[in-house]
Amino acid sequence: MPEPLLHADGLSRSFGAVRAVDEVSFTLREGGSLGIVGGSGSGKTTTARIVVGLERADAGEIRIRGRARPARVRGRAQRLARAREVQMVFQDPLLSLDPRTGVERVLRETLRLHFPDRDPGPRIRELLDQVGLGTRAADALPRELSGGQRQRVALARALAVEPAVLVLDEAVAALDVSVQAQILNLLADIRRRTTIGYLFITHDLGVVRCVTDEILVMRHGRVVEAGATDQVLTAPEHPYTRLLLESVPRPGWKPDRIATARRELSSSQTSPLRRHE
Ligand SMILES: Nc1ncnc2c1ncn2[C@@H]1O[C@H](COP(=O)(O)OP(=O)(O)OP(=O)(O)O)[C@@H](O)[C@H]1O
């Protein structure tokens, strides 16, 4: 058996008395897409931040293609090598893009840093093309672009590094539904053409259904259910997963039905469910 692309083993992280992540383990295979879902405060983002290296784990380890990802890196070469293992795309690209730097320059600088011996020109064109940004966008500043275009820039910058794993933290949550669909299609297309693995952090089960083949359901820092996306979404075993599914607004729901579902879900974040946990 080849080593999985990413293996997380027993990750834990507490903030004071809050166990934000509690013994979380999962595997992402080469070319795979794993969704981490759960309500607010379930520990999804902290898990993602540990994978990326933005947060340290109190316990547990991350392996990329069998090699332990060091908790600390020393020097530029190690920092760049680590960045090539995992890249992250955030919900709001305005916060992660420099407001004074145009699209082409962002990509040029990233490529120069990681691949100083290569001519960046052809690769920049390839990346813009890959994420569906025309040459007109190449000179634009982030604020001159739409939300969807900015997310494409953030994606192009992450892909420029040729990472093994791309972590997407609520990466389409701020976009309206049609733009969301375009970005999700784009991500599916990139996955078909590369060996990249996705780790999708989202509270949106519709997104998970579209772009992941496996999911992990988190609640209070723990994994309550894991398995093939189709299986978990069509025949959820854990009551919390069922609750999450029941709280997804459906066409035709009146506002009070949506409000009730949201209330039920948010009270379940603080009070334990009665059944098997
Ligand atoms: N830096 C921090 N300091 C203190 N507590 C934190 C910190 N980061 C996260 N937490 C706590 O850890 C728990 C898990 O938070 P986390 O952001 O990982 O959850 P989440 O599932 O991503 O939620 P959301 O969808 O609301 O972002 C929460 O109770 C949160 O308040």
Task: Describe the structure concisely for a colleague.
With 277 residues, the chain is an alpha/beta fold. 43% of the residues lie in helices and 22% in strands.
Could you name the ranges where pLDDT drops below 50 across 5 or more consecutive residues? Answer: 272-277
Query: What structural class results from the helix and strand content?
Result: alpha/beta
CATH H level: which superfamily?
P-loop containing nucleotide triphosphate hydrolases
- Compressed to H and E, one letter per element, the order equals EEEHEEHEHHHHHEHEHEEHHH
Portion of residues within helices: 40-55%
Count of discrete structural domains? 1
How far the N terminus sits from the C terminus, by CA atoms, comes to: 33 Å
Q: Tell me, what's the shape?
A: globular
Overall mean pLDDT stands at: 86
The set of bound ligands, ions and cofactors reads: adenosine-5'-triphosphate
User: How much beta, percentage-wise?
Assistant: 15-25%
The largest beta-sheet arranges its strands as 6-7-8-3-9-10
- Count helical runs: 12
CATH topology: Rossmann fold
The rounded Rg comes to 19 Å
Largest sheet: 6 strands, mixed
**Per CATH, which architecture?**
3-Layer(aba) Sandwich
The CATH class turns out to be Alpha Beta
Number of strands: 10
GO molecular function, one term: ATP binding
InterPro entries: AAA+_ATPase (IPR003593), ABC_transp_ATP-bind (IPR050319), ABC_transporter-like_ATP-bd (IPR003439), ABC_transporter-like_CS (IPR017871), Oligopep_ABC_C (IPR013563), P-loop_NTPase (IPR027417)
Organism: Streptomyces qinzhouensis
Family: Belongs to the ABC transporter superfamily.
